[in-house]
Design brief:
The complex is a heterodimer of chains A (229) and B (289). With 229 residues, chain A is of the alpha/beta class. Chain A has 10 helices and 10 strands. Chain A has a 6-stranded mixed β-sheet, with helices on both faces. Chain A has a 4-stranded antiparallel β-sheet with strand order 2-1-4-5, covered by helices on one side. In chain A, a hairpin with a 2-residue loop joins strand 9 (198-203) and strand 10 (206-212). The model of chain A has no long low-confidence stretch (mean pLDDT 94). A two-stranded antiparallel sheet of chain B has the order 1-2. The chains are: A alpha/beta (229), B mainly alpha (289). The A-B interface holds A 48, 50, 69-71, 74-75, 79-80, 82, 86, 88-91, 95-96, 98-100, 102, 142-143, 146 and B 164, 167-168, 170-171, 174-175, 177-186, 287-289. Bound molecules: adenosine-5'-diphosphate and magnesium ion (MG).
Chain lengths: 229, 289
């Protein structure tokens, strides 16, 4: 469904991604693991067209995304939940969802509010009044009502208390049961092992490892080398 | 004395409401594009001249007002999409230079097309005459101007506050990239915002024409006054533009009772004080609306 072929991405003159290859099939939950500064966010931004690759190709559902603007890529069915959530703090919870909603898919605003009871209770509150965990939930909910066929999730557990991370884990498992396709960038190995089928590990802009959950769980050497576990 | 006070307060509201429109436009543009529109004053002047000619051609002040707003807005759209957009990825000094250059070109253009001599106009027939408030008489046109701009400002506020497009706009001011990642073509929205911003300047200018002398450089003093407004209120903020505009209008006109010479200076005293003590303005950093 999503394929990256030899993606090279730069910020100005600094060469960040050095030929990333990665695939996600429909219905799969795949993670992109790596330490701080490894290039996870840059990979997701390259896919979304926010920081377009200078070389290589991103394909989604068989279509090359080269030269497309982020809004066009979004309309093809790619959803993005950014690092730091980027909640619209002056908008209410409901407004955050309303401006994102698009017709033609099962994730209506009502359904999302059923799935996230915490948000339903705060629907008239402004984004800035939410806690970090609630903001993360809202960021995910906002992307769901946008109706994507694949969601890119950037460090959903970052900066959240362990109890909230458990809630995020439960949510990701629920989305997986619903058949949502996910590519999750994370540093939290335990979370990744619990929710995903396959994993990539990125380090200094290069994919250093790929394997199944079963394989990665046993592979202490890889864990130590690239994740500092 | 009461008469003078009331009449100057009304004049203050007139000047103030016109400044509010100018400052709301500046704020919309700054909020979305993160540029200070140094060409705002010249769009104001251009709007005045377009309305002047359209009014003469059609015989209707209101057709002139609407036509000038549309044409000025359209020109703004062309300027944003054609000239400013290629520069967003460059050093911010480039748009400053571009906007200064454009302002000079438009100013000269106005002088070439319409000439340098000052012109005056009258309010439309429907709005001539005075209203007797019992203790004093007020020109009907001034009351109309206050009411008209108040309704316009209220409509803009309702649009930003209650419609989906308004919400998208507020969202785009905060995280443009995120809005784009939700499938919304934010550049088109920003272009429209620039058009609306300069169209509001044209409306503000046109409404003032029966009360002032029309001349090619008339946008400059407005630009300076509206900068004072946004310094006081906080740039990129609707409430700031509203309170700042009314405040500057009232202070200028009430000071004129005591000392007409000082009335243009006093607002800069306030501006300096704010820059020193509260540089983010009264409503700075409190969102758009
Ligand atoms: N806007 C930027 N400009 C320049 N370098 C950047 C920028 N953003 C990130 N980088 C650099 O790119 C590298 C990868 O960053 P990032 O993709 O954010 O890593 P991760 O998400 O894995 O923590 C880091 O070395 C970081 O310093
Ligand atoms: Mg990151």
């Amino acid at each position: 469904m999503l394929e990256l072929h030899g993606v090279h991405t730069y910020y100005g003159k600094s060469h960040i991604l050095h030929g990333i290859d990665l695939q996600v099939a429909e219905g799969e939950v795949v993670t992109l693991l790596g330490r701080n500064g490894a290039g996870k966010t840059t990979t997701l931004r390259s896919i979304m067209g926010l920081t377009p690759p200078r070389r290589g190709e991103v394909r989604f559902c068989g279509k090359a995304l080269t030269g497309m603007r982020p809004y066009e890529i979004s309309r093809l069915g790619l959803g993005y939940v950014p690092e730091n959530r980027l909640i619209f703090t002056e908008l209410t919870v409901l407004e955050n969802l309303t401006i994102a909603w698009r017709p033609g898919h099962p994730w209506t605003i009502e359904r999302v509010l059923d799935t996230f009871p915490g948000l339903a209770a705060r629907r008239t509150h402004r984004g800035r009044a939410l806690s970090g965990g609630e903001q993360q939930m809202l960021a995910i909910a906002r992307t769901l009502v946008n109706g994507p066929r694949l969601i890119l999730l950037d460090e959903p557990s970052e900066g959240l208390a362990p109890l909230i991370v458990q809630a995020i884990k439960a949510l990701l498992l629920e989305l997986k049961r619903e058949g949502v396709t996910l590519l999750v960038a994370e540093q939290n190995l335990e979370l990744c092992l619990a929710v995903a089928d396959r994993h990539y590990i990125i380090d200094q802009g290069v994919i250093r490892y790929q394997g199944t959950t079963q394989d990665l769980r046993r592979n202490r050497q890889v864990q130590e080398a690239f994740l500092g576990v | 004395m009461l008469e003078l006070l009331v009449s100057q307060a009304l004049n203050g509201l007139v000047t103030g409401m016109s400044l509010v429109l100018v400052a709301v436009g500046l704020s919309i543009i700054f909020g979305m594009l993160r540029i200070i529109n140094f060409a705002h004053g010249v769009f104001y002047a251009l709007g005045v001249y377009l309305a002047y000619s359209l009014t003469q051609a059609t015989g209707s002040f209101f057709l002139g007002l609407v036509g000038s707003a549309l044409l000025t807005g359209l020109l703004g759209i062309v300027v944003e999409a054609g000239l400013l957009r290629p520069l967003y990825s460059e050093d911010p000094h480039y748009h400053l230079l571009l906007l200064f250059g454009l302002a000079l070109i438009f100013e000269e253009g106005i002088a070439i097309v319409w000439g340098l001599e000052g012109r005056t106009t009258h309010p439309p027939a429907l709005l001539q005459g005075t209203v007797d408030l019992g203790f004093t008489k007020v020109a009907l046109y001034r009351l109309f101007l206050i009411a008209f701009t108040a309704v316009l400002v209220l409509l803009i506020w309702l649009f930003l506050r209650t419609t989906k497009y308004g919400a998208i706009l507020r969202a785009g001011v905060e995280w443009p990239e995120m809005v784009e990642c939700l499938g919304i073509n934010i550049r088109r929205l920003f272009t429209a915002g620039y058009g609306v911003g300069v169209a509001l300047a044209a409306v503000a200018g046109t409404l003032m024409t029966p009360l002032v002398t029309i001349e090619p450089l008339m946008g400059n003093s407005i630009l300076v006054e509206s900068f004072v407004v946004v310094v006081l209120g906080g740039l990129g903020n609707f409430r700031g533009a509203l309170f700042g505009g009314l405040f500057v209008g009232l202070v200028m006109n009430l000071t004129a009772i005591v000392s007409p010479e000082f009335s243009n200076t006093v607002i800069f005293v306030f501006m300096a004080a704010f820059l020193l003590l509260k540089p983010e303005g009264l409503f700075g950093g409190k969102g758009v609306v």
